[in-house]
Specification:
Serine Threonine Protein Phosphatase 5, Tetratricopeptide repeat, 32 helices, about 80% helix
Length: about 600
């Protein structure tokens, strides 16, 4: 017991003062940092001087040096950096810091001599080159950093060229042409780096709101392609960049050229066509699939291209307003001929489902559509997901033909079978939408709110939009008359009865002129006018929303749709540009700004072809 007590007292005697000293040191450092962050540099300097005398570490040096600069005490800063340089003669940071002090003291020529000498004395060593360049970059002397890397390249190439380092440096400087040239040089000597370089360029393009980076990269690539037209990798990079910029027309030009040059038998062009469909560029997709059908010797690929071509033509026909029924009847005939030619096999199952949708929603043949879907559900026994998709389509048709209870039964079956799957989420959304259509707003909102956390962003956004529509328009006394009228109009539009939907909306606007649902009703009217080819009427509605309701949630939406109306339906380039520009100025944080800027620049003729 006495021995244990003796050891405890000994530990307190020895460790106590050490703990106090250590605690004091930590406290001084924390206090010095607090003074520095609060810009109380006099007090920060006093403490960092004490800390540096006790321990001349890089941390204490850096803060003390910067504190002297903040106080404009360049003499002290110069003395400090020279002292540290003597302690660490092989570290470049102190030479560059010394030059930086001279520049702050208006001794530019002395600083220049110091920097030039550092580069001149640089040994043929990769690590030392990187250290000197980093020292220059830490003081934002980017030109000297670039010269350092180039000197290193001169001494170490071809073993090491500092290509990635220079590309990153040029990006920091905003010189995207030189950045691209560095990446292309790297790729020329190291073809296996193509994916890595694409990844780096993709990161660069992810922060390009004005499109300046993409245009510079594109111009540099184009110059190199023209200089070396037979370089496959350059053409691949040009195609890749066009896809990143969603310029699928240019991407298709490159894909066809590559296909002919290296005899790919249409595989690359087909894949691009599918990508165009997923990005709703149906015209370019059709061109891609027609190319494969005309040139490929791969029979299964040609057959698949015929199926995909019909799908693209269907999407194109149903997204072009006003919809031409004669064109759709011809398309129906093409569908039937292709299905007969190919036979009922998994390749054409999606085509059969699209045919059912075409017949039900556009050609007034719901019975034929239902029969086709029921047949599909029976023959696609091995594909549970596709069966579920057919059930959802059949539910949509039931809702279209005025059988909501049959529809909800089908939706619920899919929801139950695919509980935590995107298909189940889609089924639940459609059930929520159905509840909205028939006026069960609280139940609809409850289902939709659950979906706001769905894994599919599209489903989550749609669910949130409909949930907010319900929440914003249920009155304080829980009255739902106005909302119910709007839902009835929306259901009529879903059932392809635009004239009746317009009458209901007009009655809503007349009965509730001050209601919060007015801008929703106006947006729905503008949509109906656009889809029925009454573009002047749609223009008036969008202009009214922009003028009177721009502070609401549809201000940017109306401007964007008006610009699209001018561009795509009315062919008025000048008005489209003016609307896109107004959107960019009034709503810089809008979700539409990226596409609006791209469309504005394209209409102005900024793109390099």
């Amino acid at each position: 017991m006495n021995r244990l007590l003796f050891l405890l007292l000994l530990f307190i005697t020895v460790a106590g003062p050490l703990a106090t000293v250590s605690g004091q040191a930590v406290t001084d450092q924390q206090l010095a940092l607090q003074y520095y962050n609060n810009r109380d540099f006099e007090k920060a300097a006093a403490l960092f001087e004490k800390l540096f005398d006790e321990q001349p570490s890089l941390f204490n040096y850096t803060y003390l040096f910067q504190t002297y600069l903040e106080l404009n005490e360049t003499d002290k800063a110069e003395k400090l950096v020279k002292q540290q340089a003597r302690r660490n003669p092989d570290e470049y940071r102190y030479i560059i810091d010394q030059g930086y002090v001279l520049m702050r003291d208006n001794q530019q020529s002395k600083a220049t001599r110091l920097f030039e000498q550092a580069i001149k004395d640089l040994p043929a060593n990769q690590r030392k080159t990187a250290e000197l360049a980093n020292a220059f970059m830490s003081r934002r002397e980017y030109d000297y950093a670039a010269r350092t890397y180039l000197k290193g390249r001169q001494q170490l190439a071809p073993a090491y060229t500092f290509g990635f380092e220079l590309a990153m440096l040029y990006e920091i400087q905003g010189n995207f042409e030189k950045m691209t040239e560095e990446y292309l040089s790297l790729m020329e000597t190291n073809p296996e780096m193509q994916l890595q370089i694409q990844s780096r360029l993709q990161n660069t393009l992810s922060t390009d709101p004005e499109g300046t980076k993409s245009e510079a990269i594109r111009a540099t690539l184009l110059k190199n392609v023209q200089k070396s037209p037979d370089n496959v990798m350059l053409s691949e990079m040009m195609m890749w960049l066009s896809i990143q910029m969603k310029d699928f027309g240019t991407a298709l030009i490159q894909a066809r050229a590559l296909d002919r040059r290296i005899d790919e038998n249409g595989g690359r062009v087909f894949a691009l066509g599918q990508l165009c469909v997923s990005n709703e560029d149906y015209a370019t997709a059709s061109d891609a699939f027609n190319y494969v059908i005309a040139r490929s010797k791969d029979v299964p690929l040609v057959m698949q291209s015929k199926v995909e071509l019909l799908n693209a033509e269907y999407q194109l026909a149903t997204h072009r307003f006003p919809i031409d029924k004669t064109e759709l009847l011809k398309l129906e005939e093409k569908f039937k001929n292709t299905i007969q030619e190919t036979g009922r096999n998994p390749l054409v199952y999606p085509l059969m489902r699209s045919l059912a949708h075409l017949e039900a929603f556009y050609l007034n043949k719901p019975d034929e559509a239902k029969a086709l879907l029921e047949e599909l559900t029976g023959i696609a026994m091995q594909d549970r997901n596709f069966q579920a998709e057919c059930k959802l389509e059949l539910g949509d048709i039931m809702l279209f033909t005025g059988e909501p209870w049959e529809a909800t039964l089908l939706y619920s079956q899919v929801d139950k079978a695919f509980k935590n799957d995107p298909l189940g989420h889609e089924a639940r959304f459609r059930n929520g939408r159905l509840s909205f259509y028939i006026g069960e707003f609280e139940w609809a909102r409850a289902q939709l709110d659950v979906l706001r956390a769905a894994t599919s962003k599209l489903i989550a956004n749609d669910a949130m939009a409909l949930s907010l529509l319900i929440s914003d328009n249920i009155e304080d006394d829980s009255s739902t008359v106005a909302l119910g009228t709007y839902a009835r109009a929306d259901l009529l539009l879903y059932r392809n009865k635009p004239a009746e939907a317009l009458l209901v909306l007009d009655s809503l606007l007349q009965a509730f002129p001050q209601h919060s649902i007015v801008d929703d009703a106006l947006m729905l009217k503008a949509k109906i006018y656009t889809e029925t080819g009454k573009f002047s009427e749609a223009e008036k509605i969008y202009t009214l929303i922009i003028g009177q309701y721009s502070d609401g949630i549809y201000g940017d939406d109306a401007l964007y749709k008006l610009a699209q109306l001018y561009e795509n339906q009315m062919g008025d380039k000048e008005k489209a540009m003016a609307s896109y520009e107004e959107l960019l100025v009034k709503f810089p944080g809008s979700l539409f700004t990226v596409d609006a800027r791209k469309r504005f620049r394209a209409l102005r003729g900024d793109q390099v072809n």
